[in-house]
Amino acid sequence: MTGFVRRFGTLAALLVLIAAFSLVSPGAFGSAGNLINITQQMTLLAIVAIGATVVMAVGEFDLSTAAIVSFGGILAVTLFKLGVPPPLACLAVLLAAAAFGALSGFVVARFEVLSFIATLSVGTIIGGVTFWLCQGATLFGDIPAGFRDIGRGTLFGLPTLTWWLIATGLAAWLLLDKLEIGRRLYAIGGNREAARLAGVRIVPNTMFAFTVSAVLSALVGILLTARIGSANPTGGGGYLLSAYAAVFLGMTAFREGEANVPGTLVGAAIIAVIGNGLTILGVSTFLQDIITGSIILAAVLVRRVGRQGG
Amino acid sequence: MLLSIRGLEKRFSGARALAGADLEVAAGSVHGLLGENGAGKSTLIKALSGLVRPDAGTIRLDGTPVTIDGVAEAEALGFRFIHQELSLVPHFTAVENAFVGRRYPRRGPFIDRRAMAQAIAEVARDIAPDLPLDVPAARLTTGQKQLVEIIRALTGAPARLVVMDEPTASLSDGEARRLHQAVRRLSARGVAVIFISHRLDEVMALCDRFTVLRNGATAGSGAISEIDRPGLVRLMSGREELAAAPRAVPAQSPAVLTVSALPFGPGEERISFAIRSGEILGLYGLVGAGRSSLMKIVWGARGHDEGEIRLDGRRLRPGSIGDRIAAGGAYVPEDRRHEGLITSRSIAENLAIADLTAVRLQPGLPLTGLGALKRRALAIQAALAVKMGSPFDRPLTLSGGNQQKLLFGRWFGRPIRLLILDEPTRGVDVGAKAEIHALARRFAEAGAAVLMTTSDMDELLALSSRVLVLAGGRITAELDGAALTPARIIDAAFQHASRKDPAA
């Protein structure tokens, strides 16, 4: 029984939240259209959080994610201005992000630098590059309409962004839970020295995890730009803390204390549901942040207290 | 009687951990507490430290019944605990560590460092006169850290009973002797010591009384002078001690592992040795002689600049664990918790992590199959007689001996040419020890070269076909056949110790 609560308590909390908001506001919140809309609203946050999940699987943090989101958007629009075709521009953005991620991973794994410090430094460098590219300005115009369609509209009846969520979520779940490399990443995160002595190669695997995180963050930068039609050098600022909040909420779900993709998706959904529901109820955004933060704190505390009691 | 425990009982969700344990400890005595893993020693100790509340039974201190509800109450009664896993702050000195969690002497609002140093120097003079007090704990040897723990136990309110849980498990003989001296000085001060150890010789030499637990109950107790070693083993296990199998010296079989001109030790002297197929080479030396470091270089966990290591004639690149595994190498590390098990992952994954291709869903795809994971785990469970529930439980749910078997099982299913064992049976009970020894012999008989190091002299003599003794960065003796005696080994181990021993 307690095992069941432990595994599915966080999922239950999500369902309770949805039920509560639906009761208070059946027409606006509880409608099928709004619920689908929530999946679209949570997409960008969830993709950054999935990247963070992969890095947390190897037991590290990536504080450069927000900087890479901003960088991705700015670099994409800069390339558009130079006349680079969108598919090529997007590929270049993802490759540039991959290089930054590989750099962070290499520094962390090879020189055993704390990932906090390494990614804070790399993130600061990326922030500088971003501001240099756009000279500190928000970039409008020169954004092809075809490119914008990857972040707006619908496809087969679901919002396009929701499809991105489904695709990245599925891919990351396969990666961490089904592919061999996932076992290696979790082994490194569980006990780095034991994994190394059992033959798991620390440097390439850690570099891979940081690369995945960087590429997903850059993808979010691209999708964000496509969605809003402009790129801002601080556009990704809000994603870092909420992404890790989603991962930590997710660590309380399904598997005891381990970052996992289904859990992260539940965590991101909780954050999105609270945001959406409170907006519909007309609660100010400042109060929303206070409430969201308190709920995350409460969720984590309830589990800790529960564990001490059991 | 200082401490008198009668009929202590404790159940954990149905399983009986204690079933009527008795223990009597007099002031100033060194009391050996013995028993196989799972016999109830740790639960008994936890009851004393307030971490576990007994279901029935009484604990009396000076004849007065006491209830111990928490760690603070145990402290107030004068009980001190030194756990196997040391809990020192690495960058604090002995003096600073001794005061962690204690009341600091003050001058005005400030900590009085001079008074701290004086207080500790006084205790240290009595207990461990040659312990450096101004060196960060990280730079001390394991044995010296134990001494700091003892000093810490004596700091603050007066201690009446010190419980030591396998303090010498990772110490060499020289360091253990130093710790024994400290224990004797403790008892001379009138402090009672409960000494838990799997080393029977040590218990026979150090303790004056003993209590043996078996299946949660006291199986016997009395004066050490009235019992012998086989008697203790009988009490613990209910069976005779497993005699060491005669060392089968392998015939002139080919060398499997050759180590040549490897720079080693503080003087960068070169060491060379070879292990033949079927041979178990034991490596012996004091702590600090560099045994573990040599094992790690051979395994590729550490690099080396010069010299050469070959396995079946293939040169192994320095620092490449992958090369060793590809050539048929296997490694069982010294420290299960920190170097062996990935405690957050299942038993099945721990068994598969060294070769994930063995648990693929389809041979050509890098996908791990749950069915394949389970089949492999169950096959290893059957082959090694591992006592476990589900293969998807976490490894720490198993006893020490069974955890250790997992580290062997990890390498099953591939031909093993080189097996490296670092302290293969540390913290493992008598029964599992014999099984693990049989396992090591089985690998050797199948043609592997086995390189082993252990601080346990009985184990060294029981397993090794040949022994190399390391001291001061050199091989000071190579012993086999009739020359392989404890006296010769100890003599060679101390050849450089007088000059190089860091504690001196």
Give the helix level of chain A as a range of percent. Answer: over 70%
Class of secondary structure makeup of chain B: alpha/beta
Low-pLDDT residue intervals, each spanning 5 or more residues of chain B: 497-504
> Mind describing the biggest β-sheet of chain B?
6 strands, mixed
In the sheet with the most strands of chain A, the strands line up as 1-2
Shape designation of chain B? globular
**Whole-Å distance between the termini of chain B?**
38 Å
Structure overview:
The complex is a heterodimer of chains A (310) and B (504). Chain A has 310 residues and is mainly α. Chain A has a domain at 31-238. Helices cover 76% and strands 1% of the residues of chain A. Chain A has helices at residues 2-24, 32-57, 65-81, 86-110, 115-134, 145-148, 160-178, 180-190, 192-197, 202-228, 239-251, 261-280, 285-309; strands at residues 154-155, 158-159. A two-stranded antiparallel ribbon of chain A has the order 1-2. In chain A, α2 crosses α11 (239-251), α3 crosses α10 (202-228) and α4 (86-110) packs antiparallel against α10 (202-228). Chain A is globular, with a radius of gyration of 20 Å. The model of chain A has no long low-confidence stretch (mean pLDDT 91). Chain B is α/β, with parallel strands linked by helices and 504 residues long. Chain B folds into 3 domains: 3-237, P-loop containing nucleotide triphosphate hydrolases (Rossmann fold), CATH 3.40.50; 259-328 and 417-504, P-loop containing nucleotide triphosphate hydrolases (Rossmann fold), CATH 3.40.50; 346-414, no CATH class. Chain B has 18 helices and 22 strands. In chain B, the strands form 5 sheets. Chain B has a 6-stranded mixed β-sheet, with helices on both faces. In chain B, strands 18-19-20-15-21-22 form a 6-stranded mixed β-sheet, sandwiched between helices. In chain B, α4 packs across α5. Chain B: Keywords: ATP-binding, Cell membrane, Membrane, Nucleotide-binding, Repeat, Sugar transport, Translocase, Transport. Chain B: Residues 3-240, 251-497 form the ABC transporter domain.
